[in-house]
Specification:
The chain is α+β, with helices and mostly antiparallel strands. It has 5 domains: 60 residues, Helix Hairpins, CATH 1.10.287.610; 241 residues, D-amino Acid Aminotransferase, Chain A, domain 1 (2-Layer Sandwich); 107 residues, OB fold (Dihydrolipoamide Acetyltransferase, E2P) (Beta Barrel); 152 residues, 5' to 3' exonuclease, C-terminal subdomain (DNA polymerase, domain 1, Orthogonal Bundle), CATH 1.10.150; 69 residues, BRCT domain (Rossmann fold, 3-Layer(aba) Sandwich), CATH 3.40.50.10190. The protein is 37% helix and 21% strand. The strands form 6 sheets. Strands 13, 14, 15, 16, 17, 18 and 19 form a 7-stranded antiparallel sheet that branches. Strand 22, helix 22 and strand 23 form a beta-alpha-beta unit. The longest helix is centred in the N-terminal third of the chain and has 24 residues.
Length: 666
Amino acid sequence: MIKQEAKVRIQKLRTEINHHRYLYHVLDKQEISDAALDSLKHELVKLEKEWPELITPDSPSQRVGGKALAGFKKVKHPRPILSIEDAFNFTEVAEWQQRNVKLIGQNIKGYFGELKMDGLAMVLTYEQGIFVRATTRGDGLVGEDVTLNIKTIESVPLRLEKVGMSLPERLDIRGEVVITKAELARINRLQEKKGASPFANPRNLAAGTIRQLDPKVTANRRMDFYAFEILTELDLPTHAQVHDLLKNLGFKINPHCRPLSDLAAVDLYIKTWEKKRESLPYQTDGVVIVVDNIAQESILGFIGKSERWMLAFKFPAEQATTRVKDIIVQVGRTGVLTPVAVLEPVTVAGSTVSRATLHNQDEIDRLDIRIGDTVIIQKAGDIIPDVVEVLKRMRPAKAKSFTMPNKCPACGSAVVRKAGEVAHYCSNPHCFAVARERVYHFVSRSALNVMGLGPKIIDQLMDNGLVKDTADLFTLTVDELEPLERFAETSAKKIVEALAGRRKVSLDKFIYALGIRHVGEETARDLAGHFGTLGKLIAAKHEEFEKISNIGPVVAKSLAEFFSLAPNRKLIERLQKFGVKVENYVRSGPGKFNGKTFVLTGTLTNLTRQQVGEIIRQQGGSTSESVSAQTDYVVAGENPGSKMTKAKKLGVKVLSEDDFNKLVNK
């Protein structure tokens, strides 16, 4: 990137960050996630480090916070409440330590780890041990007096406990007002009943609550205050002892904060809470690492608007911002053409992402996404990321629109779009890209789960003419595989043995492995349960498919078409000829969920949705992808989405993960 390009990008980043910071800090509104905003800020800081001559005093990187709201008395803080530098990977933590060691000319004597709770920063003032004032952070220099509202929080002591040491007449305590996930859910249920908008997250709810002009409203919302710093200078040697003193004075401190001897201990602390954070009653997006020795803190001081002696490590976010370099088209196993955004690589949910699905032309039009746009992407688990939003204020002048091609990018055949469908298809039933994708799908984890047979090896087998379709896999021999590049006798043997171990397959897995359009794992299980044998399934007519619960006309038509085509029937015959034995489906005996239909939604804490589905089926129940009047239960985890809304509208009983476990063990 040349200097002029960097200048344009920096200005766009500043404008976008300022817009969202004003909404977030001043108006208590939020258009994008904290993770997406952090990603924009991180890019700005990196560019300004590369081009320091482009840094200006009004850059968001040089500013602490937003302006205080009108309506509350303004209060000047006893000392500036500075911001914390962010780190997004452990290399940045190690670099932070190296800078600090170089600056003070000695090794760091240890660290103190604190969970970074998602709440509202607050400064409490005590005079002669009596609580006199509570002030929001505001712009870091001046905050708002919200004393009456903070007084309603039970965890805020109105009088400090006596301790065995002499204290200044005035003490200023810094901490966080926190609302639990459970309380957020309770308040949002009340908001729904009133027809009001729900709060996006606990931080927004805390901010909205603290800024209520009527303290009675604040008192009706259960909040906590966690203290973590004493702003008044005291003769204490370590930050850990500051926490001990805070506890002795009567403040609630986070029980998971602890001294850390070195960077190895810091690394373990980060990894531990990255795994366990979902079990916490409040939300956290990372940990704060503090230089424990206060003498070393004093030497390090601050630079710009950040303290040098503390660092916020952000857990891998499920959202980030990046730029769209190109939009390409991939051909799937059913012939569907899927547009994919090629991205500037960015880290999301702990892994580097360079592509995101755009689904179809309708979705591209809805998002109004163009090549060159800056976008918010999100990723959950192992799923390919989605583009959530286009940041249109950052759109470059030369951004290019995209439309689906008229010809298949793989085989050159005409592309068609059937009436009433959103998808575009390759019209060639023998398209080699479709054949390749079908083989990928056939051996994938959710289908036959053939270990060691990934896309690269399949490409090699197909490029060398050893495999044309899924049936050919079961004809492979060690002698055929050994001469191939990167194959040795051992690896060739392992693949042949892995395929041999998958010659016996359950009916539902086999149906799913065939890659029939619109047939996922749940539908495959429904079909297996209804027909029981492969022979009955193949012989079924369109009308019989439509009679099956959870199968509508579109899926029924797809099934009838698939089994009516001679090439598909021939493929199944060849699979059987080469030793694939499809086992008849054995229905579960009567169980406590017999005849009950469940829908699973949201992120579960202790079990995966797949595991919960297995438990339901073992107990005679069934699972469905959509909520209807016939649904008996919806099992909802974190961020349940539209299925939860529909369940409430239809009066379907909603179970938490704990409720489900109680039902299972009843």
